[in-house]
Amino acid sequence: MKWTIHARRSVAVVGLIGIASFASLLLNFLFYTHRYPQTAAILPASNRSDEAICHEESATKKPIKSTKLAICENPYLQPGFVWYNDTKEETQTTWVPFYPNLLDQSYSLTTLRSTREPVDPYTSDGDPYFPTEAPPQELLDIAPHQWMQDIVRHYELHKASVASETGQSSRSRQVLELEELENRLVWLRNRRILIVSDSVDRYQSEYICNRIGNGLTHSKQGRQTAAWCHIPAWNFTLMNWHIASVSPTRPSWWWVKEMAIVNVEERWTEYYLPTLKDTIGMNGKSPDLILFHTGLWDHTYFIRGPEALGQNATWSRSLNWRELRFYMQRMRMVVSMLRAQFGDDVPIMCRSVTLKRSLPSNVSILNLDRAARFVCNELDIEIMEFGEIIRGYFDFYKDTVHIDRGPLSVLWANMILWSLFRTQGGVEVRGELVKMPTNSTEVVNVAEGWNRCHNDFMNAKRY
Ligand SMILES: *[C@@H]1O[C@H](CO)[C@@H](O)[C@H](O)[C@H]1NC(C)=O
Ligand SMILES: *[C@@H]1O[C@H](CO)[C@@H](O)[C@H](O)[C@H]1NC(C)=O
Ligand SMILES: *[C@@H]1O[C@H](CO)[C@@H](O)[C@H](O)[C@H]1NC(C)=O
Ligand SMILES: *[C@@H]1O[C@H](CO)[C@@H](O)[C@H](O)[C@H]1NC(C)=O
Ligand SMILES: *[C@@H]1O[C@H](CO)[C@@H](O)[C@H](O)[C@H]1NC(C)=O
Ligand SMILES: *[C@@H]1O[C@H](CO)[C@@H](O)[C@H](O)[C@H]1NC(C)=O
Q: Which residue, of 22, 381, 383, 392, has the fewest CB within 10 Å?
């Protein structure tokens, strides 16, 4: 199955830039240079050549890949953009973070007036233009590690090494590469990720499993109950516990007929607990990481309720305080249940909300996103900013709510694996794997790995 999206028309879409924070960064930048045109530290004065600037600046400014970096830097909490090359395979997708000092790097200089060697090419009319090209290698080098690429490559090499008839020399090259990948990925072995969320995340985990051989298995109890993807090569499992809003009851007007049980407490015993054996990892106590989200179902629930009582369904209204309070309290309850089940120190992440395609009429989902952020922050839980990074990428949806397989699903996979790597004791700084987890055929203290940078990451989002 190849991903197909409307956006493929455009050649190498440079990510749509994604996020408002980047726009505001850019605005700041323009505003700043506009107000203070003489500030040579930010932009070159017009009588200096680029070459001189680069030379001077690189001598005085901290390089972007400095030798003395803090180990707690989360690339996915930095501003940045999603970059992929349309003609390339989806696993080539990259999140390109913008780190401090970026503006001072030679490759990001855009001169306001033409000099002998402008960074951006000019038309014969003297206007800058922007031919499509990949981000500079220096930026790609500090982008977060491409775990999905590794896993897929490993899978393909593994398959090929069983069947292949290739010549001796290329074969041994592949054997070496396979060994290298195995060493780099060994921390995946025996790991368990629990995803307590809706079908948006379930589809994302399904894409991983489809990609490397084994699809998703749905619980016999039905489609929206529990589902898992197990990757035998790594004895690695992504478990999905489906949550259908935080409603404590199944109201008579519930809109999904086949859904027998709605409330989390009942789903817990009926659907979730039977999967516990495949959810708990090597420590005999908890999964290695939990991803938690609820929002789209809640939104529909809040709109359908009044409608069932005879009011018009106004999708675009703001949610009211009672609704938000209820949502927040019930969210907290789900987190307490997770912590009671798996221990207070189990690493949990909240995923920021992904929007429905019918955004204008469903914009109050953003109220829930804000409320959920508040709750998670109060409960000392970090946020996986997938929803925010891909906000508005509706051309990449497969329907009105689900994100299709493609560049964004690769981003999702890389983000969640980046966090899992952390729980295993791994440390990555600006694309460099500075500390590899210990061979995780042994029990790992996931809380310890997680907590190394947890406090920093709780407060890391500044844009
Ligand atoms: C460049 O401009 C600055 C201030 O505008 C001036 O002080 C300096 O002498 C100029 N340098 C050259 C090489 O023209
Ligand atoms: C995209 O990939 C193709 C094929 O590898 C390459 O020829 C092209 O230059 C790439 N485009 C960009 C913008 O990197
Ligand atoms: C990890 O440990 C297991 C068991 O001791 C061993 O078989 C395996 O080769 C080790 N893997 C790596 C990459 O060191
Ligand atoms: C697979 O992983 C589980 C959970 O981490 C572990 O309990 C089990 O022993 C592993 N199986 C093998 C064959 O290593
Ligand atoms: C629902 O909307 C229709 C059409 O706008 C309006 O006529 C009707 O009065 C509304 N009903 C309620 C209960 O607000
Ligand atoms: C808002 O989203 C829901 C669920 O996707 C959809 O049924 C509804 O039609 C949307 N609202 C409007 C007015 O488009």
A: 392
